[in-house]
Prior knowledge:
- The protein has a two-stranded antiparallel sheet.
- It has one domain (2-273).
- Strand 1 and strand 2 (172-176) form a beta hairpin.
- Helices cover 81% and strands 3% of the residues.
- By secondary structure, the chain is an all-alpha fold.
- It is globular, with a radius of gyration of 18 Å.
- GO terms for molecular function: phosphatidate cytidylyltransferase activity.
- This is Phosphatidate cytidylyltransferase.
- One of its GO terms (biological process) is CDP-diacylglycerol biosynthetic process.
- It catalyses: a 1,2-diacyl-sn-glycero-3-phosphate + CTP + H(+) = a CDP-1,2-diacyl-sn-glycerol + diphosphate.
Amino acid sequence: MLKQRIITASILFALFLGALFGLPTIGWQGLVLLMVGQGAVEWARLSGLKGHAASAYWLFTLATMGGMMWFDGSVAPSQQSLLHLAWYSLAVLLWVLVVPAWLIAGWRPQSRWLLGAVGWVVLLPTGLAMLDLRAFSPWVLLFVMTVVMMADISAYFAGKRFGKNKLAPAISPGKTWEGVAGAMLGVTAYVIVVVWSSGLYKHYPLFPGIIVAGWWWVALAVIGDLFESAIKRQAGVKDSGALLPGHGGLLDRIDALTSTLPFAGLALILQRLE
């Protein structure tokens, strides 16, 4: 299983790098649209939507994402920023307030369309962030995403080697506090290497600020991971899909990105509005 995960992850990362730095804007938009559409297909399944209802859900999600792309290209940047700000703000409320309370309470909503609406706040701001951050700088998007990847890798191996104390046994029995500690250490080391090699360490307090942001990123990534695990547990499935060998579905691969990328997008929009 580990070998298959590594092979799949390596291929995906190579393809991602090629797309990130090689695709024209319209090609990147198409890729993001495809990602949001696949995420909607899997979220419909987790929400319990079937048949025509599932088709209507992912088609509406796809149309909404496409409509926002069209809107971005036809209005002034200030109007575009306000629309994105609204979506990012919804995502922040979801991940900072709603999801932690949801997980602590062990809430299991029975309304399929309520879960579907939550899926829009999970998927659409993530897609927008991938567009905004790449337009600002592909390197910024790459850094934000690789911080999450480093957290995931460090947590996996630290948990395997030292994991004893369960983080949330009722939601995801495999996750441990030792894994979280490993993620913190791994991200700290990664951020220090990147900041030092780029020369950003000369700019105090930017240097320690980035490290603290990295720790915040780990916390958000854990919340995103646990939330998808809770939704899968309610749906009675192990994986969100079978698209990626060794990983499951697309949502299984990007769960931590859905809870982190919107925050980076929000920071970028707020900087523009200053």
